[in-house]
C-alpha cells in the first residue's frame, strides 16, 4: 500500500542488513525512507517489522504511519527491516543489534516476537531507546507499547451479531498465540453478549512458532471461504496481510460482511475494490503509540515502562468509514460506555 523510496546515501553502509521479504509482493525487507531532511537534527528511526512488513495493509502499516508522521515532523530518516517466517531468535537479535550499531535511535520492534531478543539487545545498548509493540520488556531503556485488543474486538463482536442475518459468524486468527487470542476472546464475548444463539466459527492459520499465518493471503482466503460455505455471513480476521485474502473471499459473496483489523481497511487503496463488503475495522492505533514514543525520544524524554492504549483512551476503536454501522452506532456506543465504566469486563482469553 505504501510507497518505499530509494536507499538513502547515509544508510548505504547498513545495506547488508537486508533480509528476505515474506508477503505482499515485496522483493526485499530492507526498505528505507528518503534521505534525511532534518539537517542532522532529526531522528534516526530503526523499524524492525513483523512478517509482512510495510505494505501489509494492516498491523505493520499502522506502525509505519506513526514513523512516517514523526519523520515528516522532526526530520531524519528511517531504516526498515522485516522479519521472515523462518526467523530464529538469533535472527531477531541480529536485526535489532544491527540497527543499534548503525546509530538508529530509537529502535522499534513491531510485534510480540521481538520480546526475548529485545530483552537481550536493550541490555547491550543502554544508551539506545527501544520500543516494542504488543509485548512487555522490563528494561530501563524500553517503552512497551500495548493495546486492549479485546475491548475493540468486543465491539466488533457486537457489530457482527447485530448485522448477521444467518446468525452465524466467524473469526480467523493468524497464529494461535496469546495476543491473537485476545482478539478472539473479545469478539466471541461481544457476539454472545449481544445474541447468545449466534454460532461462532474460529480458525487459526498457523500455530506456535510458525508465523506464516500473518503473511499468507491465500490461507486467509481459503479459511474465509470455508466459513462462508458453512453459513457464516460476517467474518472478523486478525491475521496481518492474510486478512486481505479473507476480505477478498467475503467480497465475493453477496450479503456477507468482513471486519478488518488494525488499520481502517475500508480506506486502504489496495483493498478499494472490496470496500463495499468491509463492514468496519477494529482499528488499533499502533501509529499513535509509535509516534508518541519517537516524539519522546526526539524531545529528550524517552518513554519507558508499559504504556497501554485502551478503549477509553481511543487506543482501539471501530472505524465508521462507509457508514455501514451508522444504524447500530447507538448500541455500539452503549457497549463502549459499559466497557469504559467497568460494567462489562472483557475477557483476554477464549
Features:
Rossmann fold, 350 residues, 21% strand, single chain, disordered N terminus, globular, 2 domains, alpha/beta, 9 helices, six-stranded mixed β-sheet
Could you characterize what this model shows?
The chain is of the alpha/beta class. The protein has two domains: 9-147 and 286-309, Rossmann fold (3-Layer(aba) Sandwich); 149-283 and 320-340, 3-Layer(aba) Sandwich (Rossmann fold), CATH 3.40.50. 34% of the residues lie in helices and 21% in strands. The chain contains nine helices and 13 strands. The chain has a seven-stranded mixed sheet, with helices on both faces. A six-stranded mixed sheet has the order 8-7-9-10-11-13, with helices on both faces. The longest helix is centred in the middle third of the chain and has 17 residues, at 178-194. The protein is globular. The two termini are 33 Å apart.
List the topology elements.
Layout lengths: L30 E2 L10 E7 L9 H16 L1 E7 L6 H13 L5 E4 L4 H10 L5 E4 L8 E6 L1 H15 L4 E8 L2 H17 L4 E8 L10 H13 L4 E5 L3 H10 L5 E6 L15 E7 L1 H13 L6 E5 L6 E3 L10 H12 L10
Parallel strand pairs: 2-3, 2-4, 4-5, 5-6, 6-12, 7-8, 7-9, 9-10, 10-11
Antiparallel strand pairs: 1-3, 11-13
Helix pairs in contact: 1-8, 2-3, 4-5, 4-9, 6-7
Determine the mean pLDDT: 90
- CATH-defined fold name of the largest domain: Rossmann fold
Task: For the record, give the distance between the C-alpha atoms at the N and C termini, rounded to a whole number.
Answer: 33 Å
Shape: globular
Name the quaternary structure: single chain
H-E string: EEHEHEHEEHEHEHEHEEHEEH
Give unreliable regions as ranges.
Answer: 1-40
Q: How much helicity do the residues have?
A: 25-40%
Strand-residue proportion: 15-25%
**Total separate domains:** 2
Number of strands: 13
Radius of gyration: 20 Å
What is the SS-derived class? alpha/beta
Sheet with the most strands, sense and barrel status: 7 strands, mixed
Amino acid at each position: 500500500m505504501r510507497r518505499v523510496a530509494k536507499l538513502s546515501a547515509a544508510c548505504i553502509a547498513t545495506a547488508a542488513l537486508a533480509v528476505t521479504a515474506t508477503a505482499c509482493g515485496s522483493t526485499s525487507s530492507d526498505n528505507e525512507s528518503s534521505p534525511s531532511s532534518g539537517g542532522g537534527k532529526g531522528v534516526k528511526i530503526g523499524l524492525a517489522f513483523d512478517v509482512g512488513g510495510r505494505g501489509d495493509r494492516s498491523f505493520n502499516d499502522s506502525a509505519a504511519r506513526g514513523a512516517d508522521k514523526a519523520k515528516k515532523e522532526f526530520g531524519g530518516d528511517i531504516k526498515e527491516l522485516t522479519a521472515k517466517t523462518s526467523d530464529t531468535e538469533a535472527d531477531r537479535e541480529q536485526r535489532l543489534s544491527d540497527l543499534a550499531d548503525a546509530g538508529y535511535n530509537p529502535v522499534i520492534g513491531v510485534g510480540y516476537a521481538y520480546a526475548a531478543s529485545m530483552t537481550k539487545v536493550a541490555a547491550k545498548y543502554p544508551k539506545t531507546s527501544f520500543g516494542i509493540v504488543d509485548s512487555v520488556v522490563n528494561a530501563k531503556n524500553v517503552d512497551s507499547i500495548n493495546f486492549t485488543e479485546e475491548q475493540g474486538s468486543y465491539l466488533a463482536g457486537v457489530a457482527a451479531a447485530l448485522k448477521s442475518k444467518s446468525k452465524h459468524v466467524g473469526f480467523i486468527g493468524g497464529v494461535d498465540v496469546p495476543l491473537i487470542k485476545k482478539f478472539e476472546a473479545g469478539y466471541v464475548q461481544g457476539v454472545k453478549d449481544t445474541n447468545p444463539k449466534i454460532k461462532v466459527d474460529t480458525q487459526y492459520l498457523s500455530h506456535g512458532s510458525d508465523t506464516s499465518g500473518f503473511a499468507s493471503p491465500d490461507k486467509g482466503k481459503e479459511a474465509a471461504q470455508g466459513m462462508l460455505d458453512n453459513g457464516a455471513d460476517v467474518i472478523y480476521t486478525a491475521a496481518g496481510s492474510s486478512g486481505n485474502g479473507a476480505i477478498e473471499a467475503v467480497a465475493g459473496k453477496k450479503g456477507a460482511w468482513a471486519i478488518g483489523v488494525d488499520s481502517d481497511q475500508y480506506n486502504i487503496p489496495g483493498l478499494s475494490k472490496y470496500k463495499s463488503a468491509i463492514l468496519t475495522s477494529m482499528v488499533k492505533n499502533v501509529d499513535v503509540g509509535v509516534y508518541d514514543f519517537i516524539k519522546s525520544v526526539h524531545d529528550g524524554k524517552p518513554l519507558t515502562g508499559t504504556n497501554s492504549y485502551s478503549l477509553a483512551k481511543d487506543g482501539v476503536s471501530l472505524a465508521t468509514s462507509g457508514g455501514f454501522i451508522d444504524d447500530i452506532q447507538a448500541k455500539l456506543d452503549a457497549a463502549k460506555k459499559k466497557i469504559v465504566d467497568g460494567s462489562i469486563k472483557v475477557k483476554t482469553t477464549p
